[in-house]
Amino acid sequence: MSSPGVCNVAVPVRPEYGGEYGYAVGDQRHRAVFNGIWELPYAFQLSGLYFYGSGARFSTTYGTDQRNSASSSPRVRPNGTIVPRNDFVGAPLHRVDLRFLRHFALGGHAKVDGIIEFFNLFNHANYGSYVTSENSTAYGQPVQNVAVEYQPRMMQLGFRFVF
Q1: Separation between Cα atoms, residue 112 and residue 101, nearest integer Å
Q2: What's the pLDDT score for residue 19?
C-alpha cells in the first residue's frame, strides 16, 4: 500500500551513473612535510623543506562516448564494462627546497637580508597531470603541468629590507 503522491516504482540507473563507491579525484593517501631553520654564525641562516606526497588519484575515462549519452566523462568501454571511477594513481611527489640567507645591519633598526633559494633542489621529476583516457596510446603518460610544485629545479635571488 502506498501513500497518495508517492511512487514506489524502482527506476533502474545505469552503473556508470551511480551506485558505486570510489576515492575522490585528488585523493592522496599519504603526505609528509619536514622543515627546519638553522641560525648559523656570522649572521647566516639556512632553512629547508622536504615534501613527500603519495600519488594522487585522477579521473579516468574510456575516451569515447559508446552510448551517445553526451557525457563529458564517458566511462563505458566497447565491450560494455565500466572504467572504474578515479582509478588512475599518479607517481609520488618528492621536493627539497633550500634557502640560504645573510643578514646585513645598516644602522639602527634597519637591515637588509640577501637571499638565495633553490626549489626542487635535486630536480626530481614531479608530475601533476596525466593522460587518463584508456583508448589513448599515451594512457598513463605524464603531461605538462605549469603549477610551481611540479616544476624542475629553479633558483632565485632576492633581498629584503627591514626597518
Answers
A1: 10
A2: 67
